[in-house]
Specification:
The chain is α+β, with helices and mostly antiparallel strands and about 100 residues long. It has a single domain, classed as Aspartate Aminotransferase, domain 1 (Alpha-Beta Complex), CATH 3.90.1150.30. The chain is about 40% helix and about 30% strand. It has a 6-stranded antiparallel β-sheet with strand order 1-2-3-4-6-5.
Length: about 100
């Protein structure tokens, strides 16, 4: 998956916008970040999952999905290795992340 593909998927949700935080692009529902690009580097993205969702994704494909470092990862923040990610799965994961922040 390319960065442009991730961006297009993230912006496909009703009301999703692109902004910037800590010098990298992020995607928001309302004013809450549900995904970002460039963390920890250009090959990676991040989504805000629940710890249970994160565990399921890590078990399904640990080469693509990895918990973020430290306390962020313990709270469900999950990195996605874009070069190995499949578009259909990333769309599902982005939908979960979008719903996680927009339901609050």
């Amino acid at each position: 998956m390319k960065i442009a593909d991730f961006r297009k998927l993230a912006l496909s949700f009703k009301g999703a916008i692109e902004s910037s935080h800590m010098n990298h692009p992020d995607f928001r529902a309302g004013n809450k970040i549900f995904a970002s690009l460039g963390q920890p580097d250009e090959a990676w993205a991040m989504v805000k999952l629940t710890p249970e969702q994160q565990s399921a994704m890590d078990q399904s494909d640990s080469e693509v999905f990895k918990p973020c470092n430290g306390a962020w990862g313990q709270r469900g923040y999950t990195n996605i290795y874009l070069p190995s990610a499949k578009k259909a799965i990333v769309k599902i994961v982005l939908q979960m992340a979008f719903e996680n922040v927009s339901s609050k």
